[in-house]
Write a structure and sequence with these properties.
Number of strands: 10
Radius of gyration: 21 Å
CATH class of the largest domain: Mainly Beta
Number of domains: 2
Shape: elongated
CATH superfamily of the largest domain: Jelly Rolls
Helix content: 25-40%
Structural class: alpha+beta
Largest sheet: 7 strands, mixed
Oligomer: single chain
CATH architecture of the largest domain: Sandwich
CATH topology of the largest domain: Jelly Rolls
Amino acid sequence: MRKLIAKLVNGEITRRDFAARVLGMGFGMMTVESILDTVTIAGEWNRSAKNAESFRAEPFSEKTPYEQWIEKEDVPVHAGYFVPNVRTVELKPWKRLGASGAIINLEGAEATDGAYLCEIAPGVATNPQRYMFEESIYVLDGEGETTVWHENRPKQAFKWKKGTLFSPPLNTWRIHKNTGRVPARFISVTDLPLVMDLYHNADFIFNNDFVFRDRYNHQP
């Protein structure tokens, strides 16, 4: 059934042919109509969801929305049950970050946790970002500072160095800057897989202006 639905979504078979095949499998007309309605809604949503992220999760795909998203990011993806050394794995320029990076997608995480690596050259800062998922950052090497803020509110900065663990408040703007003389590398553990698989919408996650004042309201 999954492959048949995928063919319908991709336009490989007509709605009439789909209905005939599903009925031939022993399902009732109510099931057929329910699937056709769902596919129609998904198609309309996908057409309206072409956003600044240039990412569209394909419905009924064998890959999760998160797996589809990481493919579009065009950076190395390190998968498996463990990563031997996060300080030496391959990184590549990551347009989103404005720095070098890679994604870690471990087996056994059950699509709830993910991770990424970021390496910032001396004197360089990452692109401003905000997003609707939680992250915990551990600094592997180097030193620098992170600035966080909400729209039209004062910015606040704090310093970090090798061994620092911190978590920027949910959906605040943040910039990470390397203030040292050697590359600064950190690993971030996130719940993005869960969030992406829940909403299927990169624009909602990365371009959402909701302010969680209960999480952060510019307290010192």
